[in-house]
From TrEMBL:
<comment type="similarity">
    <text>Belongs to the peptidase S51 family.</text>
</comment>
<dbReference type="InterPro" id="IPR005320">
    <property type="entry name" value="Peptidase_S51"/>
</dbReference>
<keyword id="KW-0720">Serine protease</keyword>
<dbReference type="GO" id="GO:0008236">
    <property type="term" value="F:serine-type peptidase activity"/>
</dbReference>
<dbReference type="GO" id="GO:0008241">
    <property type="term" value="F:peptidyl-dipeptidase activity"/>
</dbReference>
<comment type="function">
    <text>Exopeptidase that catalyzes the hydrolytic cleavage of multi-L-arginyl-poly-L-aspartic acid (cyanophycin; a water-insoluble reserve polymer) into aspartate-arginine dipeptides.</text>
</comment>
<dbReference type="InterPro" id="IPR011811">
    <property type="entry name" value="Peptidase_S51_cyanophycinase"/>
</dbReference>
<dbReference type="Pfam" id="PF03575">
    <property type="entry name" value="Peptidase_S51"/>
</dbReference>
<keyword id="KW-0378">Hydrolase</keyword>
<keyword id="KW-0645">Protease</keyword>
<protein>
    <recommendedName>
        <fullName>Cyanophycinase</fullName>
        <ecNumber>3.4.15.6</ecNumber>
    </recommendedName>
</protein>
<dbReference type="GO" id="GO:0006508">
    <property type="term" value="P:proteolysis"/>
</dbReference>
<dbReference type="InterPro" id="IPR029062">
    <property type="entry name" value="Class_I_gatase-like"/>
</dbReference>
């Protein structure tokens, strides 16, 4: 059995790609899905899916497993991702619709996980994802591959939210800063000391991250806009895509009323630090430094 404390003893060799959601329509598995779903893949085809292939161990020859567990329409979502990856030249793309814990512990599924160079988790319900896969043999194998091998965990929407050690699984945007309105649980544990929220700018979810961070200021809040993601390798996070990444840093909080108000009452926070990243900006998780690539004050020289 793999435990999350493994992170305390080793630096991961693998890479993470966490994505805030699809173009315009939200993640593929949500209620605003329509019959033009292939249009949602335009950005992924041009940007993020291309980067996943380029960063993978064997490039176009890498074995890619699309995990549709979070989705309520896996029969639609899986083939669309497969088609997009194959359009970009990927030769070994498969779909794994794991719907039960028995499947997640089976020899067939674990053999495929062992052979994979990339796992791509689709959108949907992150609690469904963790409740089916969490602590399974499948989960243990991909987590250990991420720690020890040139392996990519990629996830969009629910797949991104579930990547961290802890995850938000419930809480409305409008009531996000009322004590107790945000519900969190353990995620899949690919990155520690962060918590991820998705569809972030479009759905006004910044209050959800504020509460998650004030609950434990050691946690870095990451808000991913749609069409946007983070490429995480070792201690560096680089923004990819057309939108914004919001970081919420609670280390410098001076005061709060969190423990002195009743459930359902508004939370006050003094000195919460917020950063905004756009494409190619990067953040060092170890030093906590943000670098704006197109800075008007400290421009980074372009290399020809």
């Amino acid at each position: 059995m793999v435990f999350f404390s493994t992170f305390a003893n080793m630096e991961a060799v693998g890479k993470l790609m966490i994505i805030g959601g699809a173009v315009n329509k939200g993640s593929f598995s949500e209620t605003d899905y329509d019959q033009n779903i292939e249009k949602n893949l335009n950005f992924f085809e041009r940007g993020i899916l291309r980067k996943i292939i380029n960063e993978s161990r064997l490039k176009e020859d890498s074995v890619i497993e699309i995990i549709t567990t979070a989705s309520q329409i896996p029969q639609i979502v899986g083939p669309e991702y497969k088609k997009a990856f194959e359009f970009l030249g990927a030769k070994n793309v498969n779909i794994l619709d794991i719907t039960t814990r028995e499947q997640a512990n089976s020899d067939v599924i674990t053999e495929r996980a062992t052979a994979a160079d990339v796992v791509m988790f689709t959108g949907g319900d992150q609690l469904r994802l963790t409740s089916i896969l969490g602590g399974s043999r499948f989960h243990d194998i991909i987590l250990m591959k991420y720690l020890k091998e040139d392996f990519i965990y990629a996830g969009t929407s629910a797949g991104a939210a579930a990547a961290s050690e802890n995850m938000i699984y419930q809480g409305s945007s409008g009531e996000a800063l009322l004590k107790g309105e945000i519900k969190t649980t353990q995620g899949l544990g690919f990155i520690e000391n962060v918590i991820v929220d998705t569809h972030f700018v479009q759905r006004g979810r910044i209050g959800r991250l504020f509460q998650a961070v004030v609950n434990n200021p050691r946690t870095l809040g990451i808000g991913l806009g749609e069409d946007t993601g983070l490429y995480i390798y070792k201690d560096n996070m680089t923004a990819i895509g057309s939108g914004l990444v919001i970081l919420v840093d609670g280390r410098f909080i001076k005061d709060t009323n969190l423990t002195n108000v009743e459930l359902g009452q508004p939370i006050s926070i003094d000195n919460l630090v917020v950063h905004v990243l756009s494409q190619n900006d990067f953040y060092d998780l170890k030093t906590k430094d943000l670098t704006i690539v197109n800075s008007q004050y400290n421009p980074i020289p372009q290399v020809n």
